[in-house]
Structure formats: C-alpha cells, structure tokens
TrEMBL record:
Domain Penicillin-binding protein dimerisation stretches: 164-330
Superkingdom of the source species: Bacteria
InterPro entries per UniProt: Beta-lactam/transpept (IPR050515), Beta-lactam/transpept-like (IPR012338), MecA_N (IPR007887), PBP_dimer (IPR005311), PBP_dimer_sf (IPR036138), PCN-bd_Tpept (IPR001460)
Full protein name: Penicillin-binding transpeptidase domain-containing protein
Residues annotated as domain Penicillin-binding protein transpeptidase: 380-649
Subcellular localization, as worded in the UniProt entry: Membrane
Organism: Plantactinospora solaniradicis
Amino acid sequence: MGSPYPSRRFHGRRIAPRRIVGAVVGLLLVTGTLVGCSDSDGPDRAVDAFLAGWRGADLNKVGFRNPAGERVPANDVAAELKELTGELAKTPPALRREGEAKITEDAATVTVRVDWTLPGDTHWTYPSEIHLKRGKDDDWQVIWEPKVVEPKLTSGDQLALRRLPAKRALVTDGAGNGIVLPRPVVVVGVQPGEVTDVPDLVRDLDRAFKAIRPAIVPAIDLSDLPKRLSEAKPDAFVDVVSLRRDAYLQIKSRIYDLPGTKFRDEQRELAPYRGFAAALLGSVDPVQAADMEANPGLFENGDMVGHGGLQGRYDKQLRGGIGISVIITSKRPDGSVTPSGTEAFRHDPAAGTPLKTTLDVPVQSAADRAVEPEKRRSALVAVRISDGAVLAAANGATPENLAFNAQVPPGSTFKMVSTLGLLDAGAVTLDGPVACPKTFTVEGRSFKNSDSFELGTVPFRTDFAKSCNTAFAALAPRLGPDGLANAGRSLGLEGTWQLGMDAFTGKVSAGGSAAERAAAAFGQGTTLVSPLSMAAATAAVARGQWQQPKLVIEPNPGQAASPGPQLKAGSVEPLRTMMREVVTSGTGSALKDVPGKPVYGKTGTAEYDDNPAHTHAWFVGWQGDIAFAVFVEKGGSSAATAVPIAERFLRNLAAR
C-alpha cells in the first residue's frame, strides 16, 4: 500500500512525508521550550502536586531528587519539611505558582509565592524557587533542598516564632499625665519540693497577707494552694500572689524564710497606690485561661491583659498590636535548639493608644482615703460642676464599681429633686408653713420620720433642713402624677449617657398610687439611682443646668447627651439656700466647720427592704467647683456613716 501522504517538493527538492511530520513536531517542541510548558507533562504539574502535598502532608505523588541527582524518598522529604517549618508546621502556608516555568532542556525553575498566616493575622509572604529535573521517562522531579521552604534555610534548621509585645499605652488623667505606669512588684511563689508542712505554710502566709495595711480587698484566697502544690512538679514555681513592693516589704520578715517560699521581682502596670480608683480602672494581670479560650491564638502564657474597668474595656486599644518575628534556629549536638541569629521575618508591634480620662489624681486620692476606714461597702463620686468632668470614683470594701453601677433608693437626698419640682409648681416657698407631724398616713400606709421626730408646723426650709419625711409625703399630691419624674429628668436622671463606661442613670417613680407617690417624694418607692447619677444631679443644681458627666475623653465615647434645660432661678436659688442650711443648721451640721468655701448638701437614709431598720446612708453636696455623692450600703444613719465620709473627703481636699 502506498503512503497516505503525497510527496511534496520545496525549492526543487523532494521531501518524504515522514520527515515533514518530524520537522513539525520538532518545531512544536522548540516553541514549547521558549514559552514554558503548561501541558500535563510539564513541570507545572509536578510543582502543583508538591504544593498540594506540602499543605496536605502527603508527598507520595511527587518524585524527588537531591541536588546531586540522587533519588530521595517522598517520606524523607515530608519528614524534613515538617522539621524545617518547626513552629509553623501546624499552619501550612498558602502556596501558588507565579508566572511561567523557565525550562532549559531537561531543567526547569518555577517561582512559588509562599504566604504564611502568623499570630495576630500577620502575613509573611515571599517568593521561593523550585528547581526540577526531567527524568528518562519524561516525568519532572522536584530537586529537594531546604531553601525550597525559605531561601535562607539549610539542613538542620528550623523556623521558630518569637512574639514581640507592644508597649502598653497609658491611662491618663485630665492633665494628660499617666495614672497607670510600670511599677515594681514582688511575685510570691512556693516551690513544692521545699515545703515541709503545707498546712503550716498556708496558715503563716494567710496571717502575713492579712497584716498588710491598707488591707487587701478582696482578701487573698489560699484555699486552693494545697491542691495546686500537690499537682505541681517539685521544682515548679507555684504563683501565690503579686504584691506591690511596699506591701511586700511590710511582711517580708514574716514570709521570706518560710520553707518553700520563693520571690521574683517584676514590673506591672499599676496605679499610684493600691486601691486607687481600683474598680473603675480595673487591673493589668497575666493572661488567664478564660482570656485564651475567648481569643484563640491571640495570647500566650505570660502576656499581660486588662481585666475589669477601663483596663478591661479598652484592653485592645491599650495593648496595641502584637509584633512577630520568624527566626531560624539550628540544632545543637545534644539535640536542643538554639537561635542562629538569623531573622527571616519581622513585623514590629503597634504600640497601644493612650486612654485619656477626666480623673484628677489628688481628688481621687482624697476620695479613696475618705472611704477607706468604712468597713461596709461604700462609694464616693466627685464631679466638676463647671464642665461635668468625673474627678473621682472611689469604692470602699468592694471590688465592684458601686459608684457607677449601684441601683439603690436615694432616700432623703431625693428631697433635692422633689423640692425642685414643688418650687417649679409654685407649691411651696422658703418660708411657707408646712406641717411636720410624727406620722402621716396615705391609703392606709403610715409614714414616719427618722427616730419618729416631729417639728409641728414650721417654714418649709426647716422641713428640708431637718429632713422631714411626713412633710414631703403630705406635699406629694402637689407634684401631680409626673412632676417628680419631670424634675428628675431635668437633672439628667434616666438619660442615655456616653461616658466610655457603663453607668446607671436612674429610674424615677412616676404615677402610681397615692401611697407610692408619697413614698417617692422623699426618695423611697420605686425610685432607684446610682452615686454618679446623684452627683451629676447635684452638680446641676449648683450650676443651674444639667450637663452630662464625662469620663473618657480620648477616644471619643460618642455624642454626649444634650444639656438639660436651664433651671428656673426662682426655683434653684431657694433650693440652694435650703441645701446650705442643711449644713449650717440641719442634718449635715458636722460639715459646717470644714475649711474652704461654703458647703451645700442633703443627707439621706434609704430603706431598702420591708424592715425600716435596714437602711442605706447617703450624702450629696458641693463645695466650690466640686459636687459629690456619698453612698454607704446598709450604712444606717447618714449622720453616722455618710456625713463622716463627706467630711473626710472635703478635709482631704483642703489639705492637698
């Protein structure tokens, strides 16, 4: 049979059909060499298989040779790949080919883009070259060498991560000075293997810690220390507590030589002294298990994290962004790993952003010292009248921020609000006669005065100064169903405030039965307030207009509530007169000799359950440009608890 391809002549020469086919195929091969091979037999297929195997930890579909041309088992490559990637092995990178393969005869080079996702969502991206060799069977094989993973790697190296902590930013006062700064602490720990008698050690430590003054609140709990010691290795350092250095020095002689005790000097982000605005500021402590569970991969043991208060709420801002360094380590002869000194990648940390507050360190100190002697839970809030700045928020005998978040009846301090409503309604005047009987009954409910006193019929200003409950219960109908609530709202109660911290702004009784309105007129019933809301209301009376308190200045916490209406001069001026008389001749007379400008105020005793003997104690007032509210939980008589705190506060201010 003849050829199916006809003979053809070129320039007078006859060329056989078979030679034509060979020439065409050869031309195609040459063309493929120039532009890169992308068919199924090209190097790209081998590279893609290697990249998939790297990510999937299965390289059995790839053939390997070393630079000398010797075959390398895929399992050996997989093992070395895992060894080389070290601490990054559990999170393989994203991998993709870039550009066309460069092919020269039986050799090829393919560029691969390697993209590691590091802690903190940081990306380390770089190009790597993969060299390939074509075998006798035309299959492309990867030339395996450590620099395929990262160009600086050699055999025996490993990649390791080093976290680069950011400098934590400051919480500053109203002048921009740092409140929370690095300060020395001593970490008290125990080494289990050196303890001779665990119960004796726990008892001695507990006694020593309780001897620290001022007392640590809440007290250090050692109940789980025996269990922790039994579970720890003999040479472990079991952390017991971190003490400010001055507190540690108080008890050093009692605990330093106890069998098993160990001590470590560190620095922590701390306020000027223990207890300084503690509930409001929060703390910065070593990361806890709950932090790590809530933020997988973000923290490591030893990181410092904000907990509670401003430190907790603004932790991300203050902490800044973590930095990360990828270093190349190498193995010592004994098998341990040591850094080689080569840094393959570095992402510098982003420093935290400061948090600027309105707090005033001397005023806060005066407030803390004022509540410190009180053993019951208490709070004192101070607000600058002229601009609403929160200068101090002290909480005594509690880690909770009662100053902002307590929701308690205001008692007779609310007579400041009901009096404003009565004056606005024209229902009373300073000297108008109002009876103050021993008891007053509304709808079968009997109201009485503290200690069951009675004044008879006296000028209203006397009822206010002496805090006559029965007079206000009798006057309640003149407020109408909404008069009390409207007066409270004009002083900012029940508002939506943007402080930068959560705060309870109050709930004022409105409507209800005649008995409920009678109770609400002197701060009982369903009315609830916080010390902050009462301090702000008191500042409004002093200023003549309510202004939202402010605490966080930067970052801006949001649009502040609009100022309240201008208070009627014909109402607010008599109210100020009466609040001054509370101090000069009424229930707050213990404050009349406080140095400095005149003091204005109102006492309050608030029942909080069905037992009239169970009462909270209050005092609200102002001196100069500072308005304040004092609250003592279950404090009984305001004259016995709240007023002395107010006096200590004002005397502390005068002495600064």
